[in-house]
Amino acid sequence: MSIFKSLFSQQFKQKTKNLYLILLIEFIGSIAITFFSSRYSYNSSVLDTFMIKLLSIYSTIMIFSTFAFYIVTCFINEKINLSQTWRLTPINDSLFYISNILSSFVTMVYFKLLELLALAIFSGIYYVISPQVRTNVAVTLNELNKYTNSRLGDLYNILDKTLIFITIMILFALLTYLIISFLNFTSRAIMNFLPYVSGRGVSSIIRLVIIWLIAWLLVKISNLIRMNNIFSGFMVNDKSSLLIILVLLILNLFFLIVNVFLMQHYFEAIEKK
What we know:
Blueprint: H1 2-15, H2 19-38, H3 46-82, H4 84-87, H5 93-129, H6 131-150, H7 152-192, H8 200-225, H9 238-265
Helix pairs in contact: 1-5, 2-3, 3-5, 5-9, 7-8, 7-9
């Protein structure tokens, strides 16, 4: 367990190496974009206008940066899987792979928490400098308190659906990590069985075929449980939601087992030159 903890810590450090720089660029960039887009719109409420634009721009940047950073962690995952140096860690392949995936997920959570902290700082500044915002917040909290007291059951229902939604997003994010590894492992394993065939062109064709098969499988599953209605009314009924969670759990477990098997028997790490 101590080896797993140490490996997890090192992989987490590797994946957060440039995280603070990215956050700093987001922070400064959103302020700069807001400043240059607002400098010609001076009026009596220029500070309110500036803060509203700042919050809007930073929220938009958060969406795109989350997607971009997620892609970065996917590449780092496969780089670590392929690294002979990392694979020399005295730990079995299954724990090595699980540590790699979990460290990426924790990195993403950590990244989002820091982004939300920055958003809270911007919002706090806006709250302090704007009397109108403080008044609106007080009115909103008062109305929310009345709603909570009179519609407690509805509030629990909203919280329940929110937790289900978050669970589905977590499982889907983990599944994407696993599918990308599966694509990498299987394409390399197939190439190893074709010693007289090499080159990026053949490897790309193999990966496209695997991607098509995975996409076909996911489409069949989504049609089976009608996932196209998952966001209808924020969430479908509890039975459908639980079915989606169950299917995602099964898919995660399936790809995890297959990936570990492929990693142990058919996937060779290479020495970094």
